[in-house]
Design a protein that fits this description.
Length: about 130
């Protein structure tokens, strides 16, 4: 009977340890990291001077290419960057093609000053923070 109790105790312990173990998907020697927290990055405004309808993009700093949605396609007139460690490219065509227009490194009260008023169709943002090398 003591052997049976010891066996059952070992089985229960093994099940508990297995339940507490996290399986890591390791490929090419890299342990994948969870995506970072999303933060407010940039706000697009329909009118100059941060007025009119607006949308705030919440994403990771490196957004990849994002196609604008109505009513912001060919309608953005001012832009506010909500983080100091990012820059964004504004594109005149879908899928980040066509004329890049301007690189946004800070707030822009009037895109007209850069001849890009009501021209944004897509954008991409990226971190400007120095990357650590390992």
């Amino acid at each position: 009977m003591p052997r049976l109790a010891a066996f059952l105790l070992a089985v229960v312990f093994a099940a508990l340890v297995r339940a507490a173990t996290v399986d890591l998907d390791i490929r090419d020697g890299v342990i994948p990291q969870e995506d970072g927290p999303e933060e407010d990055l940039i706000t697009f405004f329909i009118d100059d001077d941060y007025c009119g309808e607006s949308v705030t993009v919440c994403d990771e700093p490196d957004t990849g290419c994002v196609n604008a949605c109505d009513p912001f396609v060919n309608s953005v007139s001012s832009v506010k960057l909500l983080r100091s460690d990012i820059s964004c490219n504004l594109w005149s065509q879908p899928n980040c093609t066509g004329s890049a227009g301007i690189v946004i490194n800070g707030d822009v009260t009037q895109l007209e000053a850069f001849n890009f008023n009501d021209k944004m169709v897509s954008y991409n943002c990226y971190s400007t923070s120095p990357q650590e090398c390992y």
